[in-house]
Amino acid sequence: MSARTQGTPTDCFVWEVPDKPIAVHLSFDVVDRILPDVIRGFAAVPKRGAEVGGILLGRTSKDGDTTIVHIEDCELVPCEYKHGPSYLLSEGDLEAFDEAFAKWESAASGIGPVGFYRSHTREGLSPEPEDLDLCAAFFPNPHQVFLLIKPHATRPSTAGFFFYESGRFQEKSYLQFPFRRRELSGQGPEPRRPLGERMPERMAEQALRRVPAPEAPALAASSETKAEAVATPPAPVAVRSRVPEYQPYRPSEFAVPGFAAAQQKSRFRWLWIPLSFIFLLIGLVLGFQTAMSFAGRPGTIAGVESFSLGLGVQKPDENLRVQWDRTAPAIKFSQRGVLNIRDGESFKVVDLDTPQLQTGSIVYHNTTDVVTFRLDVYPRDATTVSESYVWKK
């Protein structure tokens, strides 16, 4: 099982599998036209890449029992990508596909639709159900083929043909092959030029990428020039003069969800560093202002009034009545308190629990004419609030 490039013709790649009724002669010019679209689609969407597809054009001939499919041209059919980066055609896409197919089916040039091609950025290299449905609708003849191309980032793309066998396509291609003219034609690698010769071209290409897309009338000329630069100058095909101007894929045409957002995120990612610092400063200022506004409110622990316990002493009889404001915030939010009493040379400590603090007073029998009281309370935020009072007779 092999594929080869025959001596005649010399401008195509011959794909054939022994004992199979189909052989394909794939023009190198078609490879040069399809491959740039495939690579641009693959590079347009991060991680996976977008798929492109279209119609294979040519003719068929017979060589004994073998049908030879000559692929001499192609037409890219755009996709709206309403379902992501896969080549899944919407109703509008199917209408465009049908128009392109009908145009070539009725063409008087001698070539017509001979198959369908699509790039494949999913796992493996096998037709999907939507491919089978599309081929059943547009390419049902036994001599029509399906070309699947898988792009790679670091090596040449690979491809495989599928054809009808017992009324259906194979799950895997009988033979995969590198999808690039150099490998298919047996040409050696291009000689490496000095860096001084390559740099002006790279700089010109980078500058070209920064130029906005031209208007529609200029797009055709730009696309034609770009295609000629990518491909080795091919021999002209007579039918090209009757074909509408070829419109290659442009990454900006993709409507893949998240693609534009990913580019924008990469472009402005550095702005988040100063913005984050500014947001931090704003948060600190707002937090400080909020704390100060709460601190000035009555009834809160942080307020100035919150530290007043209203400690006082009265002598209604032979005893002293020590009183405090049980509605004071520091008292209300405290779980315990300590009343320190210095009466002359004696010193006494009275522990107060929450119920005792809420009573608001305590009776003490003094022994001297000067008594110092200090009330310490402990609010729930672990803050100690103290207030002293000196009673004199």
Explain this structure to me?
With 393 residues, the chain is α+β, with helices and mostly antiparallel strands. Helices cover 31% and strands 27% of the residues. The chain is built from 10 helices and 16 strands. The protein has helices at 28-44, 91-105, 129-138, 181-185, 195-210, 216-230, 259-267, 272-295, 329-332, 354-359; strands at residues 3-4, 12-16, 22-27, 53-63, 66-76, 112-119, 145-150, 158-163, 176-178, 312-314, 320-323, 334-343, 346-353, 361-364, 370-379, 385-392. A hairpin with a 7-residue loop joins β7 (145-150) and β8. It is rod-shaped. The protein starts with a strand and ends with a strand. Mean pLDDT is 79; it is low at 1-7, 213-234, 236-255 and 296-305.
Instruction: Note poorly predicted spans.
Output: 1-7, 213-234, 236-255, 296-305
Largest sheet: 9 strands, mixed
Strand content: 25-35%
- Helix count from the secondary structure assignment: 10
Cross-sheet strand order for the largest sheet: 1-2-3-5-4-6-7-8-9
What Rg do the Cα atoms give?
43 Å
SSE layout and pairings?
Layout: E1 3-4, E2 12-16, E3 22-27, H1 28-44, E4 53-63, E5 66-76, H2 91-105, E6 112-119, H3 129-138, E7 145-150, E8 158-163, E9 176-178, H4 181-185, H5 195-210, H6 216-230, H7 259-267, H8 272-295, E10 312-314, E11 320-323, H9 329-332, E12 334-343, E13 346-353, H10 354-359, E14 361-364, E15 370-379, E16 385-392
Parallel strand pairs: 3-5, 6-7
Antiparallel strand pairs: 1-2, 2-3, 4-5, 4-6, 7-8, 8-9, 10-11, 11-14, 12-13, 12-15, 15-16
